[in-house]
Amino acid sequence: MNKPELLEALSKEAGLTKRKAEQVLDAFASIIGRSLKKGEKVTISGFGTFDVGSRKARAGVNPRTGERIKIPAMKVPRFRAGKNLKAILR
What we know:
Blueprint: H1 3-14, H2 18-37, E1 42-44, E2 48-55, E3 58-61, E4 68-71, E5 74-81, H3 83-88
Antiparallel strand pairs: 1-2, 2-5, 3-4
């Protein structure tokens, strides 16, 4: 499912216009992003938890040139599914 398909489903499910559904989705993503940037964990009971993980610096290879490169350490967003979301998939 891509963003337009998600917006279509959200607008039908919640009885919103597509424009309002897009505003809600964009606000949700923005709030999650700002919270993660502050180092906060975001838990939505039954759905899951968003948090920040870290990757160590490592060596890599440029696929075009074959040249070895250094990939710097970085912070990455993580998501862990909650109990209810996992139960839907069973």
